[in-house]
Amino acid sequence: MRLHRMRVTAFGPFARSQEVDFDALSAAGLFLLHGPTGAGKTSVLDAVCFALYGAVPGARQSPGTPLRSDHAAPDVFTEVLLELTVGGRRLEITRRPQQERPKKKGIGFTTEKAQTWLREYDPADRVWQALSRSHQEIGEELGRLIGMSREQFCQVVLLPQGEFAKFLRSDAEARGRLLGRLFDTRRFAAVEDRLAELRKTAERQVKDGDDQLLAIAQRMAQAAGDSADARAWPLPDARPGDPGLASAVLQWAAVARGGAHERLDIASAAVTAAESRQAAARRVAEEARQLAALQERYAEAARRAEELAARQPEQDALRARLDTARKAELVSPALEWWEQAQRAHRTATAERDRSRARLHPELADAGADQLAALERRMRQDLGALESARRAERRSAEIDEERSRLDRQARADEDVLTDTAAWLAGWEAARLGHQKRIDAAHEAATRAEQLAGQLEPARRRLAAARERDALQVRLAEADRTHTATREAANAAHEHWLALREERLRGIAAELAARLRAGEPCAVCGSADHPAPARPGTGQIDRGTEDAAQQAYRDADRARAEAEAALSLVREELAGARAEAGAAGVAELADAAGELHRAHGAARGAAAGLHEARLALASAEGEYERRLTVQRTAQQNMAARTASREALDREQAALERELSEVRAGAASVAEQAGLLEHRTAILAEAVEAVRAVEDSAERLKEADGRLSEAAFRAGFDTPAAASAALIDERGQRDIQHRLDDWQHQRATVTARLAEPETAAAGLAEPARTEQAEAESAAAERTLRDAASALSAARARCAELHELSGRATEETRRIGPLREEYERVARLAGLTAGTSADNERKMRLESYVLAARLEQVAAAATARLQRMSGGRYTLVHSDARGGRGRSGLGLHVVDAWTGRERDTATLSGGETFFASLALALGLADVVTDEAGGAGLDTLFIDEGFGSLDDQTLDEVLDVLDSLRERDRSVGIVSHVGDLRRRIPAQLEVVKDRAGSSVRLRGVAAGAPPRTP
User: Fold this and answer.
1) How far apart are CA 135 and CA 133, in angstroms?
2) Which of 55, 373, 702, 970 is at a distance of 20 to 30 A from 110, taking alpha carbons?
């Protein structure tokens, strides 16, 4: 990797753009970067790191530390541009950090996001080609090409001597941290962490399995209970993770199962004995219960026999009553007929009395014939009232007709009143319609005038909008014309330069056409003793013609752009002439106002036809109202004559009806009264005749009843009626007699049973004693059965838990083996295992190998710097309680002894750390993929060297040019300014720092990538 050029703007102490030509500095191989304290020497290195990685080294990248220069103007962006060659490709990187910039509109600042550009130089076309603007893509591409992280780059390319001096004096832990960052041994540390994690996981799984096994053992102890076996062989006292835990638990489980089986056999024998005793006691109790039941049966039968004998008279009375009721059933039909006749006679008598109560008192004792004659006379009177009814209906019709005439009269009066009111306002309404027509005429005239003004206003508005658009196009056309003109001028200058260059080498071009023996086209000689040779970059005719054609194309484009600019200017002038100086908003407002006024006038004019139709409709309504008025007046005159005729007809009818009504309000009322009286008489006739008929039937039924009672053996019909019992009552008496007979037969049969009779003569049964003995035997059996069930459950649970313990032991066996294997590996990689004699971690082991390579690479330069006296060697010896592997010693050839690097003097420490830094740069470069590092920077430490040692160190640094490297030394030492002519000076000023090149030719030709 080689740096070519860098430009920093508003970065760190640099307020303005400062450019560093690394090609000019690298041409000398060794150059000096110097300046006063705080001028910005380190900022130059920070800018290189920021351009490559987007961040600055170390603590200078801490949050809150700005990269922007406090001296820079607000509108100047902080930016770093770095041109370098890496991986055979020439790249240009431009980075801008996130920063505040002034707002384009308004006041205040806004945040500008970080930006990155990456370009690559194409040597064939001699142009820069853009590659990407993505932070991620650019970072990945540069990381792949450089092959180092930011930390590695800062240690390898920007060599901080102070840190390597600390590295020489630090302990193994500090060295391990630095080497770990450089060589990225995180994967080996990750292996250590992964093994430790696997060991913890396996240990946790084994302990979880042992916890589960101990939990099963505790459950087995609970299942085994408090027995002599459990007390003699207690549960193993072991903790999770103990090696012999599983075997001890399995042995204890076998002993617990044996004891449980013994107790099961004892419980089984006890249950068999209890079952025999319980069966014998149950038989005795059953026999006592049977004897007690027979004795109770005998006593109950004797008691029931006595009760049935006491009820004998009652049964005889029921049987006699049932026989009398069956005789009375023969009289029942005659009795029912008499009762029906009796009820009918009472009903007819009550109806007759009710009807007579409605008659006139004089007719209270009248017979049926007298009442019937009176009814016939009233019906004749009703027939005579029919003609009077017709006259009364006609009189009602006349009343209705007069009412209709009155309603029509009132309607005509309303029509006349409404018509008179309407006709009174007719003249004003007609004038209003005429005014609407006149206003519509005026609006139509105004709409025509506004239409003539609206179109010019619209043309001016369109011209104003076109004028504003043409102004934008004019600016664009002007920029295009300027660009094409500059391009044409550049093409013209390029063509003239090529032509001049060709003319300077025209001799070589003509010499190329010479042929032996042919005359020269210039001098005519056929001898060509020293023809001119083409120089480097000779321009031929084709190149000049191509440049000329490019100029012609550019000039044609310029002419076209100039013509387009003139056309836009002409169109803009026309638009300005049409639109004037008024703005688009002002013209739009004026056109809008005209448009609204024109629309309003057109709307008003559109009402002309409607106003004319309204006037015509009002005139038609006026004629109709006059016609209606005349018709109503004529109807009122005709209606007066009709009412007089109706009055005469109704008076005649009223005289006729007054004679017929006989004091009633109307004929209908008189007819209704007669009809009511006729109905009462008819009802009374029917009631009197019904009483006479029912009396005859009652007399006949009474005779038949007396005859039937005598034949059935009863003295009177009342006695027969009293003896009657309905069918349900008879069934009830018969059921009671049958039940008593059945009970007496049952009791007699029960007393005759041999077993019952024998039990009645035997001693009383002792059931309570037998039941108590049977219950005691039952309890003994239940206790024994419970003990047996518990013993069986205990055995089953112990068998099940023993199986689970065996299965758990079988399951955690492989886990225990895996834990032991992983624990050995984790202890070995962590340096805690007894097998790791040097207590060296895996990461330390890898770093020790890298440190050994670094020491070997550093020794080659250290021996030259120290005149062959010192050699750096790696030591893996342990230091105190620390771990071994990262020790670093120096071998002194003058004494032949090996000692710690902390014993070196200040100057010796400097060149030892310098050698270590250079050696580390070589090893890290090889580790990162072998990418060449053509530019290095060394920071401070040269002030501690004497002149001879300083010369030897500078010789070593100068020898780096043999590998085509350039080395920049960052130092305050004044003697180095005399020894190193190529210098980059950083000058401090109030307005910001600046850089100057000294001892080199500015703009030196770049090296070939």
Assistant:
1) 6
2) 55
Q: What is the residue type of 25?
A: L
Q: How many CB atoms lie within 10 A of CB 246?
A: 22
What residues does 955 pair with on adjacent strands?
none
CB atoms within 10 A of CB 987: 14
Unique residue bearing structure tokens 């290095």: 936
d(CA 620, CA 292): 127
pLDDT in tens, 347-403: 777 777 777 666 767 776 676 677 777 767 766 666 656 666 677 677 777 778 878
State the pLDDT at residue 894: 86
Round to whole Å and give the CA distance between 854 and 153: 16
Asked whether residue 921 carries a pLDDT value surpassing 50, the answer given is yes
Q: Where are the alpha helices (DSSP H) in 358-384?
A: 368-384
Mention every residue, 6+ apart, whose C-beta is less than 8 A from residue 255.
Answer: 229, 233
- From residue 573, how far is each of 464, 579, 587 by CA, in Å? 11, 10, 18
| Calpha distance 967→411 (Å, rounded) | 128
Identify which of 813, 802, 788 has the alpha carbon closest to the alpha carbon of residue 219: 802
pLDDT given at position 1005 = 41
**What's the pLDDT score for residue 693?**
77
Write out the two tokens for 395. 């009189």
Helical H segments across 662-716, by residue range: 667-712
Neighbours of 674 (CB within 10 A): 17
CA distances in angstroms from 18 to 42, 197, 916, 969, listed in the order given: 15, 54, 33, 20
d(CA 597, CA 610): 21
How far apart are the C-alpha atoms of 859 and 915, rounded to whole Å?
7
Structure tokens at 489: 């001028």
**Contacts made by residues 402-406, CB under 8 angstroms, sequence distance 24+:** 402/643, 402/646, 405/639, 405/642, 405/643, 405/646
Q: Which of helix, strand or coil describes residue 7?
A: strand
Cβ atoms of 558 and 487 within 8 Å: the answer is yes
**Which amino acid, residue 942?**
F
End-to-end CA distance of the chain: 10
∠ CA 491-497-503, rounded to 5°: 135
Please, are residues 983 and 995 in contact by the beta-carbon 8 Å criterion?
no
Residue 160, amino acid: P
Distance between CA atoms of residues 255 and 597, nearest Å: 116
Strand positions, DSSP E, 158-241: 158-160
Q: How far is CA 131 from CA 91, 124, 140, 329, 464, in A?
A: 10, 17, 13, 134, 45
941-947 average pLDDT score: 58
- List the single range of 95-109, 254-268, 858-872 with lowest mean pLDDT: 254-268
pLDDT in tens, 185-216: 677 777 778 877 877 877 677 777 767 777 77
Count other Cβ atoms within 10 Å, centred on residue 897.
Answer: 10
Which range has the top average pLDDT, 6-20, 611-625, 699-713?
6-20
Greatest pairwise CA separation for the chain in angstroms: 200
| Residue of higher predicted confidence among 420 and 29 | 420
Which amino acid does the sequence have at 422? W
From the list 489, 478, 535, 487, the residue with the least C-alpha distance to 512 is 535
Task: Assign 3-class secondary structure to 928-968.
Answer: CCCCCCCEEEEECCHHHCCHHHHHHHHHHHHHHHHHCCEEE
What's the pLDDT tens digit per position in 301-333? Answer: 777 777 777 878 877 777 777 777 766 666 667
Q: Residue 121 in 3-state DSSP?
A: strand
β-strand pairing of 30-34 with 983-987: parallel
Contact 67, 12 (CB under 8 A): yes
Per-residue model confidence (pLDDT) at position 444: 78
